[in-house]
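Standup notes
- DV: blocked on the single-chain target, sequence here:
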Amino acid sequence: MRYQPNPHFMRLFEMFTSAPDSIGQNLQQRLGEAHSDSPLLLATGTDLVLFPGGGRPPTSVDIRKGTKGFFEITAVSHLGLAIPYLARLRELGDLGCKTAARELIAQCRVVQDFNSVSYWRDEVAVTAWRGHEEKITDLVDYTCATTADYLERAVENPKLLNFEYMRANLLEGDGADAVAVPFNDMMAATFALSALDSLHRSLKWLHEQSIDWARLMVIVAGRAGRPSAGLTWQTNNVCPLLYEASNHELDPARLIIAPTAPAIELEQLTDNEASARAEAQYRRFWYGCLSSVEMSRLMWPGYPAFRKGIDQTPVVDSDTEVVDAMPRVRSVHDKRAIVTRLRYVMEDPGAQIATAGMQFVLDQLSVNGNRPELVEIPGFTYTTYPVGSRR
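- DV (later): unblocked, structure below
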């Protein structure tokens, strides 16, 4: 028989913590009411939503998948992984890998034919990429052409799918049969271009909101990439973004990462009553997580306090063999750190993949007044891609 606690003890437990009218629930409600005019920012995997407080309506901005150019540039970035993944499938005896390779070749050719400067300049029209459209067109044409050519040859010559050969000639670009631009550079460039767009727009929107950062309550809600990713300050994209946007005024202790927080659809915010209910729900959730912080400071002020660590960025040198946190990129030429970040986000299940291209771009936007034209992009700014066939 399953154990059941004594009901008298259970009632004693519930009176403090779990009953709807418990002491703990009552304190959380009172704290929420006392701070109902404090701004609350909700960050999801795709959006930032600001509840200004005091009954004012929320505002929001799409920071990822709903934006122009995200899927296009990410699709091209993935080609740097597609060939090694197909090679591994072949090693594992997958009978469909040749068919998959031929389908990928065909789609690369389709994208090559469609790719043009006018598409990137007039249809995608990403503000942060303005002035880079010709080079992006060249990068896309080169990557698709090289992928298709490499796979066409690999279907006939499996030597090209040997990992030692691929590392030297496709990824690193230091082998005897090296491609014109190493795919490590291409992946670094596409990651950084994607980050440049999302960070520029997010910073612009955040700066326009006149946020009282010292009082801001933040909930980073829901899934962000892999189910295991983005659960700490160091591995979540939003945390450094908000910290830089606030000019380091945001109190890290007021930010909680909560994968279990309730989901929200932006359509709800267009209805005043539904929006008010959602805001009240998130305020209760925030105080449900952090009301104990206030109490601990009142009860034990003379004991060591907890402080959330936000800077764990190792430097990668030529003799570095292992990192236990995302390394810092010191310059656009710090290729070892740039590629280590690519490996890190794939190797650490807790890391968000998009984080690979963020830090160096965010640092530059922060010191240059959010001017994307002043940002140096790894694998792009000082890299020459062959002129595309559809310029």
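- Follow-up: Residues 272-299 form the longest helix (28 residues).
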